[in-house]
Task: inverse folding
């Protein structure tokens, strides 16, 4: 048991590079824009480009980890993330920062993609959903403190110092993974060439995407994540303009959002044995959609009371936490062969879709609370439609094993 917890803990550090790279920085976005003489949309682009690369990279990391082994690729990804974080520290302009953030996001994807594939290797089809949800329980604790820390540190440090802290954390992670994380792939694909019987089940991207069970879970989380990305990319500006909040208060707002996300992730330990995985995802989608529709409704009639808005935001985050914890494992259940590729495609659709939707909204011009909330509500409704219209029994989906 202790060994398993240590394994999860070491995997969780590189797997959390995305929240580390976003939540720590978001409270300081207004000051970043001011220091680099950047427009609002340009500072938001530093978030969206990170997420875009985070979504494009998984296919690269996943396929190579299937071919050459999990651990070597994980170490390469962590090292690249460390170098890009250090480079961001010295970015002289918003254009350079945005470019470096793209490569930082590309490197950060290695952590979560390879972590999911390692858990699929280690625990098999029956244990994958539980194992990945356990990993997300570790991940859920980390983002709670990050925005609060970021908000307070912004009083004493420049935004560039946050990238230096990302570099230090990456180096610590690199040493931990090199020291204690074992290789989980019994035979990398590169060693299977002489053993045709082992490669018969290799799946193509088309076969993975044609699996309706995979597609349903992937698209539901993609639209749920799109709403969250829209919220994260806009809330610090909207709350400052609407409620006159400070960087520290913005940090607390995001921390509350992340606390609700963590509650959604943790509560599945209670809900799943009672209701089953599919019904728990249904609960998450329902909570997410109801909350974002309510936010859109109250925002169109004026500025809602802050406490009411926070309650609805936390309900939406709670629903996304349930979806986030269960959908990755469920999406990978059908694939005993090519889990790295399936994990990569899942991550690609999730992050690229969320980044493109969010940036498309940003490109349409300045947004107020009502416009942003309506865009997020549309994402939540899309998640509901995907869940209701794409149906596939788990028994049929599991037949690949």
Result:
């Amino acid at each position: 048991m202790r060994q398993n917890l240590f394994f999860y803990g070491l995997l969780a550090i590189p797997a959390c590079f995305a929240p580390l790279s976003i939540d720590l920085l978001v409270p300081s976005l207004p000051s970043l824009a001011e220091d680099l003489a950047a427009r609002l949309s340009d500072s938001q682009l530093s978030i969206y480009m990170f997420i875009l690369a985070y979504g494009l990279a998984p296919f690269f990391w996943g396929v190579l980890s299937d071919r050459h082994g999990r651990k070597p690729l994980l170490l390469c990804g962590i090292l690249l993330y460390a170098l890009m974080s250090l480079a961001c520290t010295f970015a002289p302009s918003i254009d350079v920062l945005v470019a470096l953030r793209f490569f930082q996001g590309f490197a950060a994807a290695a952590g979560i993609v390879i972590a999911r594939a390692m858990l699929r290797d280690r625990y098999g089809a029956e244990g994958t959903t539980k194992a990945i949800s356990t990993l997300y329980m570790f991940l859920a604790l980390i983002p709670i403190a990050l925005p609060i820390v970021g908000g307070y540190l912004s009083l004493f440090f420049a935004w560039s110092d946050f990238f230096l802290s990302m570099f230090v954390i990456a180096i610590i992670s690199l040493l931990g993974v090199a020291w204690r994380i074992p290789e989980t792939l019994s035979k990398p694909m590169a060693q299977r060439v002489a053993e045709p019987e082992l490669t018969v089940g290799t799946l193509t991207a088309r076969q993975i995407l044609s699996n309706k069970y995979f597609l349903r879970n992937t698209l539901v989380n993609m639209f749920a994540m799109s709403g969250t990305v829209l919220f994260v990319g806009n809330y610090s500006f909207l709350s400052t303009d609407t409620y006159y909040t400070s960087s520290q208060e913005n940090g607390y707002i995001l921390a509350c959002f992340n606390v609700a996300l963590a509650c959604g992730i943790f509560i599945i330990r209670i809900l799943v044995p009672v209701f089953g995985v599919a019904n728990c995802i249904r609960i998450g989608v329902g909570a997410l959609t109801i909350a974002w529709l309510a936010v859109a409704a109250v925002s169109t009639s004026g500025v809602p009371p802050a406490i009411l808005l926070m309650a609805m935001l936390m309900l939406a985050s709670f629903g996304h936490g349930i979806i986030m914890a269960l959908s990755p494992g469920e999406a990978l259940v059908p694939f005993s062969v090519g889990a790295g590729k399936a994990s990569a495609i899942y991550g690609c659709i999730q992050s690229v879709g969320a980044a493109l939707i969010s940036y498309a909204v940003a490109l349409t011009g300045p947004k107020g609370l009502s416009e942003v909330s309506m865009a997020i509500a549309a994402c939540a409704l899309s998640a509901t439609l995907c869940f209701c219209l794409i149906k596939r029994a788990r028994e049929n989906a599991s037949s690949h094993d």
